[in-house]
Amino acid sequence: MDADKNAATRPSMKIGELAKTANISTRLIRYYEEQGLIESTRAANGYREYDPVLVDRVWQIRGLLEASIPVKIIRDILPFLDDPCDIHVTEASPELIAALEEQHEQMDQRVHFLTRNRDAIAAYLESIRGARHL
DNA sequence: TTTCTTACA
DNA sequence: TGTAAGTA
């Protein structure tokens, strides 16, 4: 079924390939790994090998990071993102829960902030377009 | 050629 | 984060 373009979930992607596929630098990939955000195995020659599913994982990490979520928290919720069914919730410490609630609240505020500005810009654009037609 | 580690800007 | 150096 998959002869050439489907190496779906096999631990074999070199850092350069992952970088190109996920559109991030190899430098950042190594950095995420240093921070314990992603894992990799090592080939006999010492080269890192990545599971192709990390392409998505990297995007999730970027999103979380861009939302200013601390690496410490990302580390804790990443395993949950892997299998949402896994019951990490049961062992979530009060500290983690508190941190996540705070982050959630902050994200909510950002969403409102962005929404408001987006609408303001949309309205401004509208008025400009209208004026242009005069 | 690609990747690795370490380190500086 | 990018980039340089010296390897494997």
Automatic annotation (TrEMBL):
Keywords: DNA-binding. SUPFAM superfamilies: Putative DNA-binding domain. Gene3D superfamilies: 1.10.1660.10. The keyword DNA-binding applies. It comes from the Bacteria. Residues 12-80 form the HTH merR-type domain. The keyword DNA-binding applies. PROSITE patterns: HTH_MERR_1 (PS00552), HTH_MERR_2 (PS50937). One of its GO terms (molecular function) is DNA-binding transcription factor activity. Pfam families: MerR_1. This is MerR family transcriptional regulator. It comes from Phytohabitans suffuscus. The lineage of its organism: Bacteria, Bacillati, Actinomycetota, Actinomycetes, Micromonosporales.
